[in-house]
Amino acid sequence: MSTSTAKELRQFDWLVYVLVTCALCLSEAKDWRRANATCPKLSICQCTVVSKGAVTSCKNVVNSQELDADMALLEGVVHSRLTFDHVQVTELPASWFSNHSAHMLVIKNSPLREIETAAASGIHKLLRVLLENDQLDVVPRDLSAAKRLRWLCIRRNHVKFLKGMLSLPDLLELDLRFNAIETIDEKYLSGMASLQSLRLSVNKIQHLPSILFKDTRKLKHVEIRSNRIQTINALFNDLRRLEVLDLSRNVITDIEVLMASKMPFLKKVNLEDNLINVIPEVSASNAKLERLLLNRNQITEVKPEAFAALEAMSRVEISNNSVSRLHQSVFHPYSRLEHLALSGNEITSVRGTFKNINWVKELSLSLNKIEDITDVFKGLALLRVLSLRNNLVSYIQDDTFSENRGLVDINLSDNRIKWVGRNAFKGLVTLNRLILRGNQLLSLNGSVSYLPLAQYLDASFNLIQSLEKGEFFNNGRLTFIQLAANNISDVQGAFTGVTNLVGLVLSGNQVELLRRTDFAERLDARLTITIDDNPLMCDCRLAWLRGRNSKVHTRGYPKCDSPPRLKGKLLHDLTRRQLILWEERCETGCRCDCHEGSLGERTIAVNCSSAALYRTPRVFPEGTTRLELRDNRIEELDDALVNGAPHLEVLSLKNNLLTRLNVSNIPEKVRSLDLRGNRMKRLPYALILDAGDIVCSKNSNSRVSLKAFLSLGQKELCPSAVPAVIAYLIPALASLVVGLTLSAAYLRYKRELKVWLYARGVCRSLQCIKEDELDEEKLFDVFLSFSSRDADWVHAQLLPSVEALGFSVCTYERNFKGGFLLQDIIRDAVTCSRRTLLLLTGNFVESEWCRWEFRLAYQRAMEDHINRLVIVLVDDVAPESLDEDLRAYVQATNYVRWGEPNFWDKLLYSLPKRNAKRKLIVNRPQEYPMTHVNDGTQEQK
């Protein structure tokens, strides 16, 4: 039969199948609509109604006779599914199904051993039967009475033999998995002409009759895995509709006849876990084969043109065998193969093997003995995934993957790679994952730079000793780097080009330092670093890891190895201050702090200021670059600095007793020297390296203007124009005359001067006018501000005692007449009083006028620069009940609490420091008249 004829036949069959199926569905749909789908009230079973009829389930029934009544009530009910679960019945009685309709019958977890013929025939419209985990030892022949049965599943029973012939002409699927089937009669399937799917997996079948499938030409899916089949011969020959064949987990040794059989629509063959030795040539009759699985066999040879006739083949798996070589002609010249798995073989070379598979996307060559991969992958432009783990590859040359620019995943782990070319991965702009784990690399050699889409890199368990600066340059999307178990001692800014790094594993190395400058200046995500099992130098260069706002944190339990005082301590337990403090070789009385230099080196700043030193320290920490010796008693500088701090750059000797300085005692690298406040009479010019270049600036003195400083003598620099006595006498006399004149003017115009200065804000900052002078004309010592609701308490408790101390007190009811605006009264009271005594109670807080009094008094105090406001806290007032200004003032100043110890002493201290009697507030221009207040004498009268 020609290919075109076969194609037309297949299309016609499909069309007929679709039309018949639609007709049956329409017919059944009409039947369901006419059916009785109501559920009667049952005593044991449970019934619900769905769109296609009733669903009834009878569970956990010990005595099957108990179901008789329920089954009788279900007569005439059309079921979508009828289930018996854990029902103790050995034979399915016909009496239960005298007039029942069910689309599907399920009997599971029961001791069922037999089904009566009348029971099978009594269930109308039965299409599907599931008998699972019962006690059947044969397939019930009485099921043949269900003439319309389409799907039969007898799983997890004890069926051993398939004898005779089971007549089910409309059956499409037969599932007999998980039984104990040993033999099958050659005509057992003859009565199943419509069968399309056969599942016999997980049984004990050793032999399949050669004509078993003679009358089942519509088979599409055959699954007979996990049996004991040894030979298959021409069993499947001429099954023209067969698409999937699964014979895995058997003991098949030879497949030559199978591969020569005619199965024109075969797409997938699974022969995994057998004992096959040779892969023969696959017949062109099977040209539509797409997937061939041969993993875990004993294959030692693949015929040179084994798959040469299979252009449509897309997946071949021959992993875990003993194949040593694949000829380049093994595949079709225009093969569309996309996935090739050859892992776990004995292959030593693949040179030329992939010549004809230019469409391949996934290539697995792991667990072989391949030594050289140079130029092996040329032409594979579509390759995306490559696995070469556990081989013998020792090097990767430049441009090895130059023609595989679509690679996304490369696994080269567990080889013997000692060297990687700098351009080995050049051009892999789509690479997402690179694994170099478990090799013998001494360095990455800059090979992992310029991988812009790489997200995962694993180079753990190598011999890498160092990382280059910018090792991961232009790897902006790299999120995880594994470098555990190497010999890395310094990372040298290797991660500066990685801004999206999320995880970095450096455990099990020799890393002493991890500087902030080793990472990108801007990190877009929170970075977690694992640095366990490293000899960490816990100094200031690790302090950045302990910062509160750091986007980098450590994971695990990293321990310090040095300095000695921190050895064995967990990095997590140390504070930033502990890491900065440096105690080694730090002299007593001095403070030594560690700082990170611009190049990542450790520098020490020693501060011995105000330590009463008579000489410079004798010992210095290694790397000391800054020394503070100001405010000491050092008279002479010896060679201690040159010998102990040769790298010193900044030296401060301010405010000591130095009279001279020997330049040879200053370290050569000192670039900043502070000698102010000493007793030196001459400046040692040897300290000024560019003294010969100093030129005097342009000025009116022609003797020195624009002349070299070293060319000038005493005559030019210090001309003697006036005798020394006159030079001192004239300034002294002039100062005396000016002083006497100013003193006389001050005594004459003292008050006017102070008023003038105060008006311009000068005396207020200099406090040249005392408070008593400003308050000299004020009428009252104290203005008592309180809520009218607290008047009784004030007059009984506070007012008498304040007046008893000799202070004049201003209150509303005593010192003001009625008829005036209240805001004017408050303003006058505050203005005419030296202090405003504010009684802070709950009533005060609720009063708007009281709060206005506070703001006025506070404003007056700010204008006078004198704290005129005294607060007495009587009640505990919640802060949120106070307005913003009052709350801020209470929090910022001290107040007096009523009833606290020494209350009156504290109040007396806060009030004006003078005695005054109660006075009268006189009328002011353009103001309402004030209330007259009688003093003590008038009251007595």
TrEMBL record:
Q: Tell me the ranges covered by the TIR domain, including all copies.
A: 778-911
Biological process (GO) annotations? signal transduction
Query: Quick one: signal sequence residues?
Result: 1-29
Q: Where in the cell is it found?
A: Membrane
Which SUPFAM superfamilies does its entry note? L domain-like, RNI-like, Toll/Interleukin receptor TIR domain
Name the InterPro entries on file. Cys-rich_flank_reg_C (IPR000483), Leu-rich_rpt (IPR001611), Leu-rich_rpt_typical-subtyp (IPR003591), LRR_dom_sf (IPR032675), TIR_dom (IPR000157), Toll_tir_struct_dom_sf (IPR035897)
Where does the UniProt entry say this protein principally localizes? membrane
Q: A GO CC term? A: plasma membrane
| Keyword terms | Glycoprotein, Leucine-rich repeat, Membrane, Receptor, Repeat, Signal, Transmembrane, Transmembrane helix
Membrane topology term reads:
Single-pass type I membrane protein
List where the protein spans the membrane. 725-747
Which PROSITE patterns would you find in this protein's record? LRR, TIR
Gene Ontology MF terms: signaling receptor activity
Q: Which domain of life is it from?
A: Eukaryota
For this chain, the family text in UniProt reads:
Belongs to the Toll-like receptor family.
Cross-referenced PANTHER family: PROTEIN TOLL-RELATED (PTHR24365:SF541), TOLL-LIKE RECEPTOR (PTHR24365)
Query: This protein is called what?
Result: TIR domain-containing protein
Q: Whose protein is this, by species?
A: Rhipicephalus sanguineus (Brown dog tick)
